[in-house]
Amino acid sequence: YAQQQLVCEACGCVLAEGLLTTTYTDEGQLREVSYSQSTGQREQQSRCLQRGIRRVQDLCKVLQLPAVFEETAVSYFRRALQLPAFHLVSLEKKELLGGCCVFVTCRQHNWPLTMGTVCSLLYAKQELFAGVFQSLQQELGLSVPALSLADLVKTHLGSFRLLQRGADVPAPFAEDKEKLVARTLQVVELASETWLVTGRHPVPIVTAAAFLAWQSLQPPGRLSCTLGRFCKLAGVDLPPPAYLRLKELLEILLRMASQLAWLRVFRLDKKTVVKHVGELLQHRVFLLKKAFCEQGEEEEEEEKEQGAAAPGEGSAGCLPAGQTEQEQEQEQGCSSRGKRRGEAARRPLLPPCLTKPRKRLRTAAPSASDSALGGDDPISDSEIEQYLRGAEEIRALQQLKAW
Amino acid sequence: MDADSDVALDILITNVVCVFRTRCHLNLRKIALEGANVIYKRDVGKVLMKLRKPRITATIWSSGKVICTGATSEEEAKFGARRLARSLQKLGFQVIFTDFKVVNVLAVCNMPFEIRLPEFTKSNRPHASYEPELHPAVCYRIKTLRATLQIFSTGSITVTGPNVKAVASAVEQIYPFVFASRK
């Protein structure tokens, strides 16, 4: 009954019966079920998934999000990682995927979290984050509601050191949180009504509005404080566009102030108008209507003025053929609109890029010769010659290269 | 102003991208040496050739695939592509002008009113996507036409589509929606 055993000469290991076979069929019958065929691997999570889930959970803890958010974000992450669009990408993108899942969850629950915050926490480039975010939306078919500016104002101001009790802030600069939030919300609403918010990053607008509101609550001690110093006191970063947003807000406020009779006397400028922000915000609906007009209304106004200025001319006599009265007066209106912009006259409430265009608008029509080109027109040899170098030129170039 | 009344909108085509094949291998070094207005990008393995009339830029690969960009109409794109193929023929290659196709058309259109983007996005989900932190315009996709529109608050709309007809249809389709969200 002795069995033939094989023993390794080097280590003395005894090979059990049947482990070495000579045919494939023997292998097939005797070998155990491999790990990849068993259900063990499917139930176990891959290292990538485990790492990703841990990252999502850490992110939720850092942002102090409720437990429901964490569960939702983790479920999105699991679903996304199964798809080839996210499974077969670089590790960098997989790390961003976790952040995107948290971001989407926050937006769906109206929790004001900006992309800038998530990118800074993940040390990620915003362009890459944007790409992963858009792919996630598309692949999972998620509906992501818009960011609520009011909630963002409350959250952003909540992080200001100026508003925290017990913070080491000079007395003239400390402020009550509720008052500041209320006034900032009003300024932000004014900004959104006057085309300053559409298409722009929200955080610089909130920062500029908070600064303006803070200055207006106690102007005497605060007018000399700059935006940069305010952000330092508040313990927040100064976003570069905030200066431009502040300038735009002050321009709007100055226009509104020009409509209030008792303020017109003061000849307000960008510094002094801050003292009257409270009054201006109180009557903002009326003042906006008075200070700005609809585009159609301005043309009517121009029409009336043109009519009043030259009553004797008579529109019928001086019209070129085929042009209507309204068109001519619109043209005149357009030419004089620029001249009158500097004055206190009503101007249309337009986005800033239209009132101060940086580049000329495209109005060039295609030239007659270009438009006459047909796809199948014959091409003459002489036209082609201009795109080929002559023999002498080629020789010279070869000599130059050889040299 | 009424959405149903006839409005004349100028759609300005700013770029037409087309491709064609030459059905032969192209020696990029020879094209760079003997062609005028040519830039040879050896590291990427392509040659850029610029034509003056029509004003187009062609990217030529050694496999014989050529992409032409910069034309302002489909006819101009075809003419430019044919002119390029003739230039390559003159250089000594056995070029056959085949598989010509217009792949992308970019056009710009200006609406005579401003548009409230948050309102527009709310009423046009899920086709519209608006992320002010990423881009100042609303991105609206029309799957049936394979067209994408970028709608700005100033009323300017940039349309990209597979051909001029799709671009024109896209503008027609979007007009009532932007009109509803006008300021």
Automatic annotation (TrEMBL), chain A:
Residues 148-285 form the BRF2-like C-terminal domain. Keywords: Metal-binding, Repeat, Transcription, Transcription regulation, Zinc, Zinc-finger. Gene3D superfamilies: Cyclin-like. It holds the Pfam family BRF2-like_C_cyclin_rpt. Residues 297-380 are annotated as: Disordered. GO terms for biological process: transcription preinitiation complex assembly. The keyword Acetylation does not apply. GO terms for cellular component: nucleus; transcription preinitiation complex. GO terms for molecular function: TBP-class protein binding; zinc ion binding. Belongs to the TFIIB family. This is BRF2 factor. It comes from Upupa epops (Eurasian hoopoe). The lineage of its organism: Eukaryota, Metazoa, Chordata, Craniata, Vertebrata. The gene is Brf2.
From TrEMBL, chain B:
Keywords: Cytoplasm, DNA-binding, Nucleus, Transcription, Transcription regulation. GO terms for molecular function: DNA binding. Pfam families: TBP. One of its GO terms (cellular component) is nucleus. The keyword Cytoplasm applies. InterPro entries: TBP (IPR000814), TBP-like (IPR015445), TBP_dom_sf (IPR012295). One of its GO terms (biological process) is DNA-templated transcription initiation. CDD domains: TLF. The keyword S-adenosyl-L-methionine does not apply. It is found in: Cytoplasm; Nucleus. PANTHER family: TATA-BOX BINDING PROTEIN (PTHR10126). Belongs to the TBP family. This is TATA box-binding protein-like 1. It comes from Upupa epops (Eurasian hoopoe).
